[in-house]
Amino acid sequence: MLTGLSETLSVLALVGFSAVTLWLLARPAARMAALMPSPRLLTLAAATTALWCAALALFAPGSSQAMVAQALRDLAMLGWLAATFWSTGAPMSRPLRLIVRMLATICVLTLVLGAAAHLRAGTAAGAWMAPTLVFAAMIVATGGLLIVDSGVRHVRAGLRMPVMAVAGGFAMLWAYELNVQLISALTGKAASTLIQLLPAVVLLMLPTYVVAAMDVGRERMQLSRTAAMRTLILLGAAAYLVVIGLTGAIARLVGGDYAQLAQAASLVVALGAGGLLIVSARVRAWLSVMISKHFFEHRYDYRTEWMRFTATLGQGGGEDDRNLYRRVARALAELTGSPGALLMLPGAAGSFRIAEQWHWPVDVEADDATLSLRSAFMLQETRYIVDLDAQRRGKSGELLTGEDLAMPDWLLADLRAWVVVPVLHFQRMIAVVVLHRPPVSRALDWEDLDVLRIAGQQAASYLAESQSQQALSEARRFDEFNRRFAFIMHDIKNLASQIGLLARNAERHADNPDFRADMTQTLKISSGRLSDLLVRLSPRERGPAAEAGRILIEPILNEIAAEARPRRALFVGCQTGLAAWADAVSLRQIVQHLVANAIDASAADSPVQVVAVAEQGRVRIDVIDQGAGMTRGFIREELFKPFVSTKDGGFGLGAFEALQIAQAMGGAIDVESEPGKGSRFTLWLPLADAHAGEGAGTPMMKVASK
Q1: What predicted TM-score, i.e. pTM, was given to this entire model?
Q2: What is the pLDDT of residue 592?
Q3: Tally of domains in the chain
Q4: Any idea what the CATH number is for the domain that residue 344 is in?
């Protein structure tokens, strides 16, 4: 009954493939060429498949005659695959060329030897030819599956549906034949049932040719990485079974108990390899790198990686996930398989300090754990992804040298540091991420650089949005501050009324000495209270008319020293002719605030110095006192935040406003301080004449005591 069903299915397959062959011949060559490459070779493959189906119907599946016809079919299918998947623009690699030639040679030898044997020995040739033909068919089926898999991954522009369908049909047929032959080799018996059902598999392959003959499916298809990985796993399992089958067959030919020994040894090797993959993260990482390098055109599955990246940035489940900075570090590290990452944020002076870490414990209080202003400027201007291994070898991996990028020594000395990624938002660097070296270190390529650069821009948008939300929150707090202290303005009104009353009484009692004395005392008290209120509550927003220009530093410092003389004598030193590119009113406001803070923080007999020089192409103004000083934690966390002050009754707005004004002029404020040893506030501003500032080897200093 099964034999009759096999003959019927073989006849149906013969009719179907004959019809498809005629249909393909009737189709216009130009239309077929537009739909898929090598249409004539596809027609030849359909014709040889029809011839093979005729051999199945006449001589039964598994016969030596059918195996000879199968070799002719395989030769045509291999020719179509070679012509379809590789061209002059995307040439075939040398190993694959050798595989194709070897398979074609095997097919030709099978045809020649099989035909010669049957012509000379007739039906008697099948008895001694069958094992040879089966072994050759196994090799061709295995090689054909490798060609299909490699071809699908090799084509860069994607594949059209008909091409994918036909290639899938070839793979399905070869996989079935290989399984049948492996089962026969493992059991030592012919799998007659599966062999008889071979025509059914051929009929299942027929629709792929129908799709190829129809003018449909012009959209391109591409095998997903998941499907490709599963294909590789199946091919690996098939290769393992082939080895086991051949080992068992050889052991049976030799005799003895070698078959059981071979099976036991294979099982031990398989279990050992599986256990090593489960236990060792380094082995898994190495295997992942090798598979991505040798089996895939692209290192990353962009769709999967991007979905995971955005999910990591947007999640907020665990304790660590509530910290956006840590999520950014984690998301960038997971892209490249790094086990940890550091995230650095800008400080007051423009340098970057470590603010957060993910699986990389570091001492964030360390003084040297910073990225200098020069390094930050170079990263922002060049937008380079820095390969630190290349930096250690004296090369940057980009166009600049290691000296140009000025990576800090502490970062180069830590061999765990692998890559530095600038996080840029509209040409402004808002963070820097340092990636930990992965378990299996590798050199960066163009794909790594592109992925990290785009991912950094995406992460920058999240950070910028978060910072905007914080700025909005601070603005709301300012509004609340104004509303909360609006009642104080009532006191100002009362003081103004009191002064007006004194003025009216003066007209009547001006000749009274006692009245004049009381009036003078009252005016002093009222004026002091009014001045204090105005200083504390006056709006400090810079007007829109403020514009930057060339401003001489020395006259402004002298004027500030003269104003401060009643409170404290200032020691002023300024480089001759030093000029900054800034707004004069804003510059005066910043220096006045820094000087006032220095006077308030120091004892009455303690000196306060103001020194201005040109340094590194910028103007540097130092305000130095020997007062109480500040802790590093206060400087880093609270000094430049609004509503935080060390003064009794202070609102903590002066330092915050000074920093905002300095940054608006393209400058920065740096702070050096230790408790009990005083403080040094450094204001950096653009130099009006950079060439003149750099050209002065030993700047002339004009020192005055005011």
Answers
A1: 0.45
A2: 84
A3: 5
A4: 3.30.450.40
